[in-house]
Amino acid sequence: MKERKVQLLLPxxxxxxxxxxxxxxxxxxxxxxxxxxxxDEVSVPCILFYLSGMANSDIINENILRMLQSKSIxxxxxxxxxxHKEIISVTDTNKLATLEEAVNALLSGDAxxxxxxxxxxxxxxxxxxxxxxxxEPQSESMIRGPRISFIxxxxxNLTLIRGELRDPNLRFVVHEIGRRSKQKVVVxxxxxxxxxxxxxxxxxxxxxxxxxxxxDSGRIExxxxxxxxxxxxQVVDTERPDRVIYNLMKGKIAILVDGCPFALMxxxxxxxxxxxxxxxxxxxxxxxxxxxxxxxxMFIALFLPGLxxxxxxxxxxxxxxQLTLSLAATREGGPFPAIVEVLLMAVTFEILQExxxxxxxxIGQTIGIVGGIVIGDVAVSAGIVGPALVIVTSxxxxxxxxxxxxxxxxxxxxxxFLFVIAASILGLYGIILVFIMICxxxxxxxxxxxxxxxxxxxxxxxxMKDLIIRAPVTALRKRPAYLEPLNQHKxxxxxxxx
Length: 498
Prior knowledge:
Elements: E1 6-9, H1 15-22, E2 42-49, H2 57-70, H3 79-87, E3 93-96, H4 99-107, E4 111-115, E5 121-124, H5 154-164, E6 170-177, E7 183-190, H6 196-207, H7 217-224, E8 236-238, H8 241-248, E9 253-257, E10 263-266, H9 284-313, H10 321-331, H11 338-358, H12 361-381, H13 387-401, H14 406-426, H15 428-444, E11 446-447, E12 450-451, H16 460-464
Parallel strand pairs: 1-2
Antiparallel strand pairs: 2-4, 3-5, 4-5, 6-7, 7-9, 8-10, 9-10, 11-12
Helix pairs in contact: 5-8, 9-13, 9-14, 11-12, 11-13, 11-14, 14-15
């Protein structure tokens, strides 16, 4: 007796009723696409669902529909398993047991195949939304080093990391965050190197996030940080894969969010804000000089306006006589005290910087440069402020731009106003008092449970080699001790002479 074939039929099935019950939860702008085929042979009703625009139509047509219409199966038992193994040619598949799982997969861009009489559905990876091409980093430019940045695709970002860090111990832990957005958040670390307590703590904090939409990495950062009241960032963000890899090899973890081109790195210390990847691409003398310059610029950006107010208002005797006379001459006839002048110019430059960021790139650069020159010149010509204050304000603004980490740079700009106000009340004593308070805060602050000041104490001499300066590569033998990595040594000199 000739064996009869069982042909798949799309769709016209009773299972459409169950999907129709969930249709009100689907976005109305997405169209459900399905095709049907009938044959004289015995037919089994089934239906294929996918969202146009979200799924790759080439994969749907060539790897699924064409296979379903051209091939047949010989038995009605275990139809889903037979379709999976013998008919479709999609490698990434998954069986789904609930309708909720099917809807979530559908909204992610995957195709769902349901067969009448089967208790499970087949999910097939067909997501095919347009992606931005790989480009140079926009916020972390450098002269020497890799010129590639993350994009909004999580799969590509993970591939960039895996492609450069070919360590079999590299681990990716996937979390799904957002009751409605269902975004994937991945924790990256190197097993056998990263402290397990850090990995467990990060995973624990991510699991406690219960919100409608995860958003970008900036929102994730705010959910996992130790102190939301602190002005200092407790997690560093970057769009450079090479920087992520470098920090993974230190014993840190990285967090990547689907749809966001920035990765988060933790734990960090206060010194991480001054480190740039280019330091390791240059010879040690050049890299060390640049780091020392950044620390000097940090003190200028933080203290210079406050010192100007304190010295001109409370301690003019500490200024050389000729300079005192010169400052007095430039400020003679001014309508405002020093504190008002400093705050007025500082706020003006902050407005110019914010306008330069929000405007289109070409116009923003013009506004920032021309606006600063024009406003400074007009303010001096009108006698509102003195030329010395324009120099102080400009030098302060330029110094804050040398900080590689944008979030930390903004924190310094905010704290600068606190120093100015304290200087206007108590002079130099006010500046010292605020500085002591900030130091106490930093000592008590933590990043993922790790001391924020860990790079400065208790092993300052060891950490200084890759913190204040960038020592020769032969001297950078150990990973940061404050991270408590499982493997301290990262360099084996062998027979090389030091």
